[in-house]
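Quick question: what would this complex look like in 3D?
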Amino acid sequence: MRAQAMTMSLTEDQRDCYQEITNVAMGQAADRLARLLDVYVILPIPKVNMISASELHMALADTATSDNVSAVCQGFIGSGIAGEALLVFNDASFSDLAQIMNYKGPLDQHGELELLMDVSSVLIGACIHGIGDQIEVSFNQGHPVVLGQHCQVDDLVKSGNHQWSQTLAIEIHYEIENLNISCDLLLLFTEDSVAKINQQVDYLLD
Amino acid sequence: MALPVLICDDSSFARKQMKRALPDDWDIELTFASNGVEGVEAIRQGKGEVVFLDLTMPELDGYGVLEMIRKEDLPAMVIVVSGDIQPDAQQRVKKLGAMAFVKKPIDKAKTVEILTEFGILSES
Amino acid sequence: MTKPGVEFAELHWLMDVLQSIDVGLVILDRDYKIQLWNGFMENHSGLPPDQVHDKSLFESFGDIPETWFRQKAEPVFELKTRTFTIWEQRPYLFKFKNSRPITGRSSTMYQNSSLIPLESVNGDVNHICLIIYDVTDIAVNQGDLISANGHLAYLSQTDSLTELFNRGFWEQEFQREHKRCSRTSTPCSLVMFDIDHFKNVNDTYGHQAGDEVIRTLASIVRQTARETDICGRYGGEEFTILLVDTDAEAATIFTERLRKKVAALVINIDDKEIKFTISSGIAEYSSNFIKHTQWIEAADKALYHAKGNGRNKTTVYQSK
């Protein structure tokens, strides 16, 4: 058996720190969304874990149900830390979302895409920058990519195609009070980034 | 006499950050609580005349703590320190009797400002 | 605002844009030392500007072949011409690791680049600008397209059950060989064989068993035949093999070997043991076969003869 690469794991302190940092960033993102839509966003505690490539599907399956979903993915990079943010929307959310966003157009594929783009810009952008502010990294965002509309969660990410074996994953759930609107934000960092982020975090923990 | 101050937050990292944001040379007796239930208990024991309170906590959240304080008429001046900064959250918290609402991450300057504003720290 | 104030604001905006734009910008002086290193380059390389400023490009990035790059860049300095590199000629200039754990399909970034001259006040070119474009998605999709096309081609030529050539494609290849045979003098033999009493196999053991028999036979054919032999599934239980550079005698040896292997075979399906045999006809190429169909007819006649003479045997076509 050849010597396997070190499996990385998080110390309790590190995990706690990530949760707190994400909590604050989520709060900022929710605040923007709340002001934009004049609603109240329910914020549960984010889940922070090291996952393997094969567990990515499970992490996604955790999020949505067997209903159809639509998803947007956006990359971010800065100071040697890079990753992608995946925003998964339950398709059932669109009609309520259209209502509170005062969207007047037809709620067809194109209309839904507009809404998806608007909401994801707010949530992903605020979250990434919220995290960046706290760990003192300035993140640059890439172009958003539509991973799928009206598909199953399983179809969003091609399995077995990943260039990494283990990495840091943060899962955030957003729900709007009294409305049928919910989505999940999955932040996935590159394997190489993890050491760097841990470094920043450890520096903050001192 | 040292002022009893309570920091109530489920994240140990956040508690540390809050502690670091307290003014230097502040004559206080500091207690920590990691959820709302512990927090209320500490306040009942007189350990929280000034409370720095998080909102999202297990067992009993920040709103729950504020409600208990009001119900039992406990002598606590509550400063909510939270990541959840939505307008609604701020409103609810004020209605429940919190003195102030500060968004995370908090720093020393901000803490001093708030404490001075409410007369807890005298201007020097 | 006074005019200089306006210009300054615009310059400031331009700098902001250059810093955050999604393209890599590197300015090199005449000695190939880095004078500008924008946000894109910093983010993907992990090296901040102060670590690369005034350093030779080649020292900081050993992956860039110096001679090749200088050859590309000198004309830009000397002749003020623009030049380009594309990912198809060279996958990347700078080796940047994949930064997309979810959608990234390549371990490194594919890049296109442009080299443009920057004129100084007196018209000389003492600096060039290297622009780096991330074209990973295009490159990966192109790769997908090529392999998809390859797969499609495979699908259209192959019989799915046996993985031998399907009839249509086999006949095409056979025709080509026939033409070649008419020009050269090397012998070629066509073998045509089928499974004896196959209908019985299907009736007795069911169609799934029948399929398994065909599949097994095909795999034996693939094992026994050479790379150059052209094997196809001609009909339901009928097969053809074109043995290139083989005369009738050698073909007979080959076919007999195959026949014996098959006769000795026992296939186990659902606790049942199935045995079967094949009959074969061989026809060596003759210039009498003006059309390729005549060659096939000859082999077919030989096969028919083998069937008529007790089956489980090989017959060679003899022209009368």
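Answer marked as accepted. The helical segments of chain B are 12-20, 36-44, 62-71, 87-95, 108-117.
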